[in-house]
Amino acid sequence: MRRRGSAELPREVGVLAVVAFVVALGFGIVAPALPLFARSFGIGTTAVGLAVSAFAFFRFVSAFGGGALVERLGERVVLATGLAVVAGTTGLAGLATSFPVFLALRAAGGTGSAMFTVAALALLLRVSPPTHRGRAAATYQGGFILGGIAGPAAGGLLTTLSPRLPFFLYAGSLLVAGAVALVLLRTAPGTPDGAAPAAAPDLSEGPLPLRAALRSRAYVAALVANLGIGWVLFGVRNSLVPLYVTEELGRSAAWAGAGLLAGSAAQALGLLRSGRLADTWGRRPSLVLGSTVGTAALAVLALPPTTGLFLLSMATYGLAASLLASVPAALVGDVSPARGGRVVAVFQMSADLGAVAGPLVAGWLTDVASYQVAFAVSTAVVAAGLAAALALPRD
């Protein structure tokens, strides 16, 4: 296959990145309003946590079914349907007048989110040629990162006007994203579900059975690395870090925000090069580098607490996450280049499992031991990804 420049990524990659940005922007907008709106029903803190975790839990348990739908109906249909489900349930949640109704709508939204995420990643990996899968994954992740940075700031302002308003805005943004997906990810004549023949020469292959994928060391390494990303990036970083800053470092919440912003900014900058590195240097050395840097960054937090080391850890882990967010996805595409809905679903479930288990385990360890012990265990989870990366055959 002729090597292509980064400007020649399949058109679908750019469309999916824009959709990812809109979805992450809307999710970030609703995040500050969610606990406040849930509180308005007169519930306790535990119930507020349930409202937050219900979305993630149902996203996790429904992802495998979403992968089966992708293999049966195609990525484009499942992607747009998933966005429509999240849009509808989010808009209705903003109109809810009781907590049980609100909770049920949040849970249903998690199911739609799983459909969208699995379908989008499956399509991205299917249309991207092997020489550009790292860059495609980095471009897609970049959309999520930028939307995630911009969303919470806007959401905080909107929440001061009305805690219901962000839900309606999020629903509207998802409808726009779904319309964009239906129009721009159109089906090309003679190819299934909009895939470009030149970009994905192996579309004629059927889905790789999950059992076959699990026998691949590359796929297992991708699962373990993605578990670490979910554990730290989507779990511990959001749940434990703010408390660590205020209780252990004795700093204000603004310092926690500065650390999270430093990590997100470093990840966004790293994504500019991480995809190319994965494609040109190789999957194994790139994953080893990302896992090594990520392990070292988290290990710093297991040391006696200082503000300088905290900020250094956040920024360094952000750089590592730019590799850990793109290389494992490229590995999955290498293992299952055809319409591998269930293979992609299990990959996504590994991150969701980390996002659910990480805060629970780390929070419990903090209560019974210390923040340092919690961060040490989180370091071990990321280090497991390094061990899996070292076990990969050399490129």
Automatic annotation (TrEMBL):
Topology within the bilayer: Multi-pass membrane protein
UniProt-recorded Gene Ontology molecular function terms: transmembrane transporter activity
InterPro entries per record: MFS, MFS_dom, MFS_Efflux_Transporters, MFS_trans_sf, Tet-R_TetA/multi-R_MdtG-like
One GO CC term, this protein: plasma membrane
Primary subcellular site in the record, as a coarse category: membrane
Top-level division of the source organism's lineage: Bacteria
Protein known as: Predicted arabinose efflux permease, MFS family
Matches recorded under PANTHER family: CHLORAMPHENICOL EFFLUX PUMP RV0191, PURINE EFFLUX PUMP PBUE
Gene3D superfamilies recorded: MFS general substrate transporter like domains, Multidrug resistance protein D
Species assigned in the record: Geodermatophilus amargosae
TM annotation in the entry: 12-34, 46-70, 77-97, 103-125, 137-161, 167-185, 218-234, 254-272, 284-303, 309-331, 343-365, 371-392
Localization per record: Cell membrane
Pfam family, one: MFS_1
Residue intervals of the Major facilitator superfamily (MFS) profile domain: 12-395
Alphabetically ordered keywords of this record: Cell membrane, Membrane, Transmembrane, Transmembrane helix
